[in-house]
Amino acid sequence: MGFGFCPLLEVPHSVLVSLVKDIGADRDIDYELELGLTIDLPVIGNFTIPLSTKGEIKLPSISDIF
What we know:
Blueprint: H1 13-26, E1 28-41, E2 45-58, H2 62-65
Antiparallel strand pairs: 1-2
């Protein structure tokens, strides 16, 4: 039984451009996160539980900080 984690994250250029446009339009970042939790069960084998969430992160403006 082992645990694996790969911290490498590749983001396509088009996603970055879309992110910048979204931040400029409404000062928030819309996100959707989809993960799969894989458990190695002795009799069944690998069993994956899908996990997902989505929402938005509001970015503070300069006047909110000062």
